Amino acid sequence: MTPAEIAARLETIRGLHAPDRRLAVWEVELEEPAGGPPRLVGAVSETDAASELEDLARAAGAAAAIELLPAGGELQGIAHRSLAHLRAEPRHAAELVSQMVLGEEALVLRARGDWLQVQTGDRYVAWAHRGSLLRRDPADPAGFRDRLFERRPPPGRWVVTTRGARAVEEPAPYAPPVADLVQGAIVEVAQTRGRFVEIVLPDGVSGWVWRGGLAPADLLAERFTPDGRAVLEHGEQFLGLPYLWGGTSEKGFDCSGFVQRLYGLHGVPLPRDSDQQAGFGEPVEPGPDWSGVADGDLAFFSEDGARATHVGILAEGGRLLHASTGRNGVWWDALDRSAGTHDEYAGRLADSLTAVRRLRFPPPPPR
């Protein structure tokens, strides 16, 4: 098998098992040492990819040194403070691509110096500084991985449901703070005292929070109704919040982070980026007057007419709630050209619309 044939086969394997490098590790190279057989070297995160690479090496008479991640067995990473920043490369100056809120988990794939490459519950692969994650050996590795990718928190956990929450030292309104909490954070509840509950953070630090600012994870639908109107009303709470590339929390959202966090709290788990989210739901024809749109539909936009590069949440009549660089944050825009608030920026958005999709919410909880 010639080097060109090996390279072509490598691309086929990558296309089958790691087509989106945001969702899988594929670092495979063909080395051609002078006077020796070719070698396949590198690392992958998909078991089937590793197996096919070994088969290819045997068929090509090549040596193989392919590391299957996670290296060293299953390791659970947990964000143990307000936010853990996820970067494209293992350095602080690298692009911020996403965030984990306190209590969210990830599979640790490998370590490189002070950095950990992780895969989060939405299967996103990125780098986190080791100081931002608590690492544990899961008691049930297979069960942990299943629960992670189904995006289920550990049994018995509670979710922070308010903005701007904090844990304090004592169950009193003006006690000193011990931890910052963002909406969506996942905590363990130890006890209740009056209007306060004691929570335990993943690293064992405990504090007290207002009881009304938490809900059991398995009863979250009672706090965040699973329907489009409720998503919009929830999202309006963030109007004016600054835009943050890679942001997924009330500290700052990007467009897809805003959509992912809101829909996740309302019972619909979505991928991280807008082009990935565009594959979910059913297509909707909005119509020239936007009469085909329902509250909670997702609108996708493209800079080049192909891959979605922006997403927002529609309301009836073609109003769009989104986190936008053009508006420097969360804002309403009127896509309908006949609307009184329609302007040049909204017109450019409407011209770049590529799709409207309607998501299916889980049934609301019984009353």
Polypeptide structure, described:
This protein is of the alpha+beta class and 367 residues long. It has four domains: 66 residues, Histidine-containing Protein, Chain: A (2-Layer Sandwich), CATH 3.30.1340; 74 residues, SH3 Domains (SH3 type barrels); 62 residues, SH3 type barrels (Roll), CATH 2.30.30; 131 residues, endopeptidase fold (from Nostoc punctiforme) (Alpha-Beta Complex), CATH 3.90.1720. The protein has seven helices and 25 strands. The strands form seven sheets. A six-stranded antiparallel sheet has the order 20-25-21-22-23-24. Strands 9-8-7-4-10 form a five-stranded antiparallel sheet. The chain has a five-stranded antiparallel sheet with strand order 16-15-14-11-17, with no helix packed on it. α1 runs antiparallel to α2. It is globular, with a radius of gyration of 23 Å. It starts with a helix and ends in a 9-residue tail after the last strand. The mean pLDDT is 95.
Write the layout of secondary structure elements.
Layout: H1 3-17, E1 26-31, E2 39-44, H2 47-60, E3 63-68, E4 76-79, E5 83-87, E6 96-101, E7 105-112, E8 115-120, E9 125-129, E10 133-136, H3 141-149, E11 158-160, E12 165-168, E13 177-181, E14 186-193, E15 196-200, E16 206-210, E17 214-216, H4 228-235, E18 248-249, E19 252-253, H5 255-265, H6 274-277, E20 282-283, E21 298-301, E22 310-315, E23 319-324, E24 329-334, H7 344-351, E25 353-358
Parallel strand pairs: 2-3
Antiparallel strand pairs: 1-2, 4-7, 4-10, 5-6, 7-8, 8-9, 11-14, 11-17, 12-13, 14-15, 15-16, 18-19, 20-25, 21-22, 21-25, 22-23, 23-24
